[in-house]
Amino acid sequence: MADEIRTDHIYQRAHALAEGGIHQSPAEIVAALLAEGYPEAAELLNSENIRADLRRVCSAATASGQQGTTDLGLGY
H helices of the chain, where? Predict the structure, then answer.
């Protein structure tokens, strides 16, 4: 159960990072998650569908000028 919760959190965090507009690719998001202490992020996000979704969200966030914020209110 704890693994499932952690996995869900990683997916949600990846999406939040994509929405923040700072990261322009899934690889950048994985690097950020690794730096945040989620070593399993690379494996969890290693799916073409997930990467395509993250690319789409990154592009939309960049196009709408949402750089610098996430759903957690962090500006980085």
Answer: 2-19, 26-35, 41-44, 48-63
The CA-based diameter of the chain, rounded to the nearest angstrom, is 37
Q: How far is CA 18 from CA 22, 25, 33, 72, in A?
A: 7, 8, 11, 12
> Which single residue is written with the structure tokens 């994985």?
30
Phi, psi at 71, each rounded to 5°: -70, -10
Q: Residues 30-56: pLDDT tens digits?
A: 999 999 999 999 999 999 999 999 999
- The full set of domain ranges for the chain reads 2-63
Q: Are 57 and 18 in contact (CB under 8 A)?
A: yes
pTM passes above 0.85: no
Q: What is the DSSP letter of 20?
A: T
